[in-house]
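Entry 12.
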Amino acid sequence: MQRIFMWHWVLAPMTRTLVTGTFLFHRTSAMNIQITPTARERMQSFLQRHPDAPGVRFGVRRTGCSGFGYVIELAEERRDDDQTLQVDGVPLIVDARSQPLVDGTVIDFQRQGLNMHFVFHNPNATGECGCGESFTVDAPHD
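Predicted 3D structure (tokens):
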């Protein structure tokens, strides 16, 4: 299926680096997102406790000192611009604006002492802030 995405880009506002523009993304294949067994177990446990949820929403939002932060939460609904991927039995819902930024990401879930969190290995990320909460991407290419 072919889709064209328009993205208005603003990068790294906290570093006073401002890059704006409109880019076209031409998608000719399905997205590739992978999840580790521990991430799958965590997502499935959320979905089992909330059987009305259509899936797990995965995407990005503007935040942090590097520009983008990951969002992973139970989806309340499917929107017209969403793409739903079945990944190891977990329905992942990704909005159109996030798709080019998260394509190719591997989602893991790690426990370190009393802390538990999702970890993202994103080949599109070209930099991260020091705390690891946000990331930067270069302008996309075809």
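Annotation: The CA atoms of residues 52 and 91 lie 13 Å apart. The domain at 30-137 is CATH 2.60.300.12 (Hypothetical Protein Aq_1857; Chain: A;).
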